[in-house]
Each structure stands twice: as C-alpha cells, then as structure tokens.
Write a structure and sequence with these properties.
- With 494 residues, the chain is mainly beta.
- The protein has two domains: 197 residues, no CATH class; 289 residues, Jelly Rolls (Sandwich), CATH 2.60.120.
- The protein contains five helices and 30 strands.
- Strands 13, 14, 19, 21, 22, 23, 24, 25, 27 and 29 form a ten-stranded mixed sheet that branches. Strands 12, 17, 18, 20, 26, 28 and 30 form a seven-stranded antiparallel sheet that branches.
Amino acid sequence: MTPFKLILLGFSALAGLLAGPARAFILFPEVYPVPVIEYYNPATNHYFLTIDYNEITGLDAGLAGPWTRTGNAFLAFPLTYNSGERCPAGGCGEIVTRFYGTPGLGPNSHFYTLVLSEVDGLKQPGTGWSFEKQAFRMRAPTNGVCPASTVPVYRLYNNRWMYNDSNHRYVTKQALRAKMVSLGWIDEGVQMCSPGEAIVALETQWIGGDGNEFRVQEGDRCASAGSCVLARGITAPTTRFLVQSLTVDQANNYLNLTTGSGGTLLVAPGATADNGYQQSFIMGNASTAHIYLNSVGTTGALSNFDLAYRMPEGKRFFPWARDREVETELSLSTSVAVTTVAVRTPGSAAYGHPSVEFTDARSGRSFRFNVVAYGTIPFAGDFVGVDPRDGKPFLATSFRTTSPFLRSLGANAIDTPPGSYLRVASSATGWFEYRVNADEFARVLASARTVDGQLSSDPADYYVDNFRFTNEVFGEGALGVTVYSTYIIRYPRN
C-alpha cells in the first residue's frame, strides 16, 4: 500500500466529496483522510495547522489577522466517522491533541502532540499551555520510524522560549525541514505519521450569481467587482419571466418556453411571453448558467454572452509571484453541456471558451488567454491576434494534450459540426481543467509579446484582472449551452 495523495480545491470540496452519494457503492467503506492545512502569520512568524472548516473559512477571510496558506499540507484521519466505516490496515492512529498558550502566562501559539506523556505533562498547572481540543488522528512512529504506507511528519521548534514566543512547525517535505533548520529552528524529528500528502488551493475564486440571478450588463468588463454576465453585440436581457420549462421547436429552429414558477428567465427588453422564446436569454443561479444566444436581429459580426468575474482590488492574485515557499501554478476548471448549435450562413461560427485577462503590473498593459472548449472552429492550431472591439491582444489555444501553453487535465475540446439547422441531440458535455506553471506561461508571454512588445517577459509581473467563459456567435447562428462551476485557482506547482 502506498500513501494517499489528494489534490483538492479546499476543505469545502473535500467535505462535499465525503458527504456525496458515491460512498454508498462501497460495501465496506474505509474512513477517508482529510487535509491538515498550514497557515503562516508574517506578523508573528508563527505557523498554525487546522482541519476545522470554520477555522479555515475564518482564516481565509482574514478574520483572524494576516494568516495565509503556505501550500504545505498533509492528510490525517478525522476524530469520528460514520457507523459501518472502518479504518484502513494499520488503523486510523492516535488522537492528536491541540494546546494553546495560556493567556497571560504562555505564548500566543499552538502545539500538537499524540504522545500521551506530553499531553499529560502540558495539562498540569503552570506549564503555560492549556488544553484546547482533540484535533485529528495520526499513527505514531516507532523509534522515529513510520510504517512504509505512511509519510513522516517532522516537528521543528523555533527555540524562542526565553521570549515566551515558542512556535512549532510540522512538515513532511525534506526541503522545508532543511530550510527551517538553516533558519535556526531545532529539528525534533518524526512525531507523527500521515496517511499521505495533500495539495490544496492557495487562492480560489469562482464565477457565480447574486442570489438566484446574474447581474447582466453590456460592455467588455464587469462594471464593478464580482460576477456578472456581459452581453456584447446584443441587447442586454433584462426582462424577467418565471419559466416552467424550455423545449426545442424543431420546425422554427427556436426554443419555446412555458411560463410558470420553475425559474427566472432574462430576455431582451420589450419581449413578451409570446415572442420571448425567439430572443437570446440567460437563466441561472449562483453557479450554473443556461444560455441561448441567437444572432438574429443583431447588426455586428460578433454576438456573445460572457459569464465573467472581475477581481476586487484586494483580491487580485499573482499566480506566479515569488511570495511563497513553493512554486505555484494557475488552474482554470469548468463544466459545459452543449445542446444546440446553429450556423446559418457560410463563414459563420459558434464556439465557447474560458478566458483570463492578465495585467502586467509593470506596464499596466494586459492581454487575454483563451482556451477553446467547444465550437464549430478547428481546434488543432494556436494563434495570436487583437480583439477588434477593445484592442486587447489575445492568445488562443484549445483544450487538447498537444497545446504548448498548458497541461489539459480534463476533456478535449468538443467538436460541434456546423449545420444550417439546430443540432439538437443529447448534450455534448465535458469537464475541463488546465494548469499553467511559470515555464508554460513564459511561452504564453513570448507569443503575446509578438503582438505587444511592451508586455513584460517575467511571469511574476502578472496578476489576474478578470476571467470569464465566453459563448460567441460569429456571423449568423445560435447556440444553447449550460456552463457551471467555473473556478480559477492558484495551486502549489505539482
């Protein structure tokens, strides 16, 4: 048996996994390990560990001070588990107890141990430590050696007891262990044995709605921070209907709606329940958008709905900044179901792609990185150009294993062949994810700089200004698509 290795969006994603129905198909389910996430506070030079959802949420929101995720994480078993579950071979381990420095007597720090003699000793009056909680479970080493199926967890001590400023750090990676020793921390050896390592998100953002409806506007960028739907080349849909169902009218090549109480449909101003089905519309909630885009009646060459997110000033993140102990990379993931495609004239096209707008902090200039997920256009090539509507440079590639600019971890781009009528069939679906590390982004920059030579060549100079999922018709056509769960994440480089 080899140690676990989990790659996670974050604690909430794992919680959803553990609560999901998939476990019902396992006859004798094993207890699933959970990530222990490390945080660092530069104001105190202290480290902190937790698996607690409420603590993680508060720390990520900045409610406890300037704590940030370090990228260091490993797995542990929870204290409790469901009836019928069993621990893996070797057991779930011993209880790890968490102590906190006694206010007015001990340090502003936490200490973790599964050694009973340490637990009993620290519970005694006058030690400067107070019992706080039982944190999680880990297996114990034998004479400093962990079982072959586990990962050693080393404890480092800052040796600042004389300043009442003791702090310990717990790591699994030898490079971090050596770094802390080089900084003067004392290596206290193997103290626990983890069931495996975890890779958790450093920063996460996702495209969502406001309540049950999206904020819809015309233009190239959300007017303010947060999520919006950008209507470009078409009138922004603002008329609302309560919709019971949507069906396809094959004879007229339009979607029909039946009014009712199933959900809110946004269509163009002036539409009625009788003609609203001929209009482009958006219907969605906090994570899912159902889109019908119809270029009929538009005057420009391009028509599109963009599900977009504009980063707040304080939440912009630099995917390749050299601000962490670990190298980092960018991930974008989304899911798409394409149900309708129409291309009505030669030369027209319909397609969709996630797009990230990167801004160069040095020059203030920006460009877009587009990755085609579906459409009637060829997927084999890559090209650079300038968006005629706003003059921004862009680099376009596609979800495929041969792209030189990214690693595609999910589906390849969905081919939706053109036709003169709606192609209505079972949905063409796909879950997509790409990762881009600093080396790959340097290749992106090399291409983008052929269009704008004033862009910096250093990946560390770029931050994410906004990201979106674009659904677009060039010429005359229509498309129907559902886009959901679009995330952008900064991970430790894997």
